Amino acid sequence: MSERTLTDLATAVKEYDGENAAQLAQQALDEGTEPIVVLDALTACIREVGDAFGAGDLFLPELVGAADAMETAMPIVVAALKAAGGSRTSAGKVVAGTVAGDIHNIGKSIFCTLLTADGFEVIDLGIDVGVDKFIATIKEEEPDVVAMSALLTITAQEQQNVIAALESAGLRDDLKVIVGGGAISQRFAESIGADGYSPTAPGGVTLVKELLA
Fold first, then answer.
1. Does residue 201 share a domain with residue 161?
2. Within a domain: 88
3. N or C end of the chain: smaller count of CB under 10 Å?
4. How is residue 145 annotated by DSSP?
5. What's the chain's Rg over C-alpha atoms?
6. Residues 49 and 125 in one domain
7. Using one digit for the tens of pLDDT, what is the confidence trace for 55-106?
């Protein structure tokens, strides 16, 4: 029965049904499925969706819908995993946020979801994140990567401000910095001293893996 439940869970995510995905995740746990097995099922599902998006077989609204459905189910599974005293080996730690003055969340949110699915520990600071918040979190969390998004041209400069603050605080050499968003280009990323740039959320995940390899 639990195998059927995991199949239904994957279907719910692919059909963007967050409420059903959460219920099925809980059902799988109630049936005795190990939390790590449920988490792996979600991971495989969202990776499949991300690969299809990267290949051009799915469009952004479909990727957003699947990511949102997975985010609804994830807290239930993570809570069960912690309660059981288990954990996955972390692939690395990433601090991510949309820079100050910018409230666009979709791309950054998908990026964080895909990273989590691939075993990364993600601290999502949300939107409109100021320099001080980035710096304070980086000092506290000691991540491997900081990822910044900016959709607006007028907020893109905030990415450079964060990098400058990292240098002033003596933190720049200890982590990789990647940038993305509609206002960003490869040339801009290079000009502000970022370690990498990707125009898409799945590409950003690949970039993080390459930088930490």
1. yes
2. no
3. C
4. E
5. 18
6. no
7. 889 888 898 899 889 989 988 988 888 787 766 778 899 999 999 999 888 8
